[in-house]
Every structure is written in C-alpha cells, then in structure tokens.
Amino acid sequence: MNADIYVNILRENLPKIYKDDNYLIYDNDPKHTSTKAKKYLKDNNIKCLDFPPYSPDINPIENVWAELKRLMVYEKYVNSISDDFEETIIFAWDKIDQKFIKKIIDDMKKRLTLVIEMKGGYIN
C-alpha cells in the first residue's frame, strides 16, 4: 500500500464513521505520515493522535490484529475453512466480537497509566 491508496481508503470510508469528537489514531508508517495523507486529514478537519513508534501496548489495533490472527488459525484448522487467504481473513474478521473491541478501547486509560508507570516499557 502507498500514500495514494491510503488516502483513497480514508476518502471512501472515514466520512461514514468519523464524528467531530473522534480522533484518528495512526502510527509512523510512511503512508500515514505522508504529505498527501496529512493534507487530506487537515483539509477535512480530522483530528489525529500521533502514536510513538514501537508502542503496541498503547495501540488498540495491535490487540485486534492479534485476535484476528488467533481466529484465523482457529477457524482454519478447527473448522477447515477455505485455503483462500482473503476468504479466511474475512471469515475471521466477521467473528471478532464488538464487545472485545469496545473493551480494548475502554481499557485505554488503564493501559496508558501502566505504560507511564513502566516509563514507556512494555506492560503485561
């Protein structure tokens, strides 16, 4: 993926879900910090939170990716779903419980407090 594709994804999807009291969270991936992406976000008044590099404990999507991987392995080997990678991802993604995602978001204050206590180190 490059900056053009990323901005297209933002353009097509962000207006459907973004609210004025939300923040877009992104890491230091080059496409996220590209001039094109920053311009799109600024031009559309999208508030952002910049995450420091290598900070999986304070990036909620890392937990979602871990759950997606777990479900992909479980569904593939336990339920013998298709060998098609894209189909497996979509099938597993649809199995992620929204309560799981809400809990991750609700736990952010606690996570941030723990990261501060660990002086930026990893937490359990």
> Between the first and last Cα atoms, what is the distance in angstroms?
31 Å
Low-pLDDT stretches: none
Strand residue percentage: under 5%
Mind describing the biggest β-sheet? 2 strands, parallel
3D shape: globular
Give the H and E element order: HEHEHHHH
Structural class: mainly alpha
Strand order of the largest sheet: 1-2
Query: Which range best describes the helical content: under 10%, 10-25%, 25-40%, 40-55%, 55-70% or over 70%?
Result: 55-70%
Task: Give the helix tally.
Answer: 6
Task: Please tag this protein with its features.
124 residues, mainly alpha, two-stranded parallel sheet, globular
Tell me what you see in this structure.
- By secondary structure, this protein is mainly α.
- It has two domains: 3-50, no CATH class; 56-117, no CATH class.
- It is 59% helix and 5% strand.
- It has six helices and two strands.
- It has helices at 3-17, 35-43, 60-78, 85-95, 98-106, 108-117, and strands at 24-26, 48-50.
- It has a two-stranded parallel sheet with strand order 1-2.
- Strand 1, helix 2 (35-43) and strand 2 form a beta-alpha-beta unit.
- Helix 1 (3-17) runs parallel beside helix 2 (35-43) and helix 3 packs across helix 4.
- The model has no long low-confidence stretch (mean pLDDT 84).
